[in-house]
Amino acid sequence: MRILVIEDDQETAAYLVKALKEAGHMADHAGDGDAGFAMASEETYDVLVVDRMLPKRDGLSVISELRASGDHTPVLILSALGQVDDRVKGLRSGGDDYLAKPYAFSELLARIEVLARRNTPSEAETRYRVGDLELDRLARTVTRGGETILLQPREFRLLEYLMKNAGTVVTRTMLLENVWDYHFDPQTNVIDVHISRLRGKIDKSFDRQLLQTVRGAGYVIRDDG
Question: How far apart are CA 131 and CA 159, in angstroms?
């Protein structure tokens, strides 16, 4: 998932972004209401995590203005104001869920996943299949020939992107931008290392190789059988 965190406390924001990325998601950060509204309007996100008390434009104003513009991206409101009236006001402003501070990251992540599931239009977009290899985005599981394959978060994101574009050659630049969220080349072998690890898990013990290197172009996952 791609998540936007709109939070003015830099320490809290850094923690959330880091934890979300470690959980296998892509996360951006906006430090005030104006920046958050602009990023949410210009980019596509699966879920917005919005602090209620923000400089320049408060969180509820950000949400209500997004809704007025026709943006229906699911929103999880974070706030130190946890009374019933506060929660009701937040939900009526257009929020989909409300989490009072302090909170446990595990609960925040679970709520984000629930919001993303609610916003998923069809099963076809939550499951990918290439040959006998299957990936379930919501359950975050991978199987091949009925055998469960355990992947690290980055490996899962890499496989998800490849399977989403099954049959199409994806370049190193595409992988850097969409899997690592890099908009520059770090001049490392990070892609080669992860491709090698992924290939060892999804192909090594099976008859057909699905993950292929296209020399000089990139990588493609397909079933030639």
Answer: 14
Q: Beta partners for 214?
A: 218
Residues in the chain: 225
* pLDDT, tens digit (0-9, with 9 covering 90-100), for 128-180: 999 999 999 888 899 999 999 999 989 999 999 999 889 999 998 889 888 88
The DSSP 8-state label assigned to residue 193 in this structure reads H
Q: Residue 177, Cβ neighbours under 10 Å: how many?
A: 14
Cα–Cα distance for residue pair 162/170, rounded to 1 Å = 7
Query: Which pTM was predicted?
Result: 0.60
pLDDT the model gives residue 120: 58
Least confident of 24-33, 87-96, 118-127, 146-155: 118-127
Q: What is the dihedral of CA 22, 90, 99, 81, to 10 degrees?
A: 120
Residue showing tokens 């320490």: 11
CA distances to 27, 150, 164 from 216, rounded to whole Å, are 30, 30, 21
- Residue ranges of the chain that CATH labels 3.40.50.2300: 2-118
Other CB atoms within 10 A of residue 39 CB: 16
Q: Could you tell me the fold of the domain covering 124-221? A: Arc Repressor Mutant, subunit A (1.10.10)
Enumerate helices (H) and strands (E) in the chain, giving the number of each.
8, 11
* Helix pair 10-22, 105-118: axis angle to 10 deg: 60
The letter for the amino acid at 123 is E
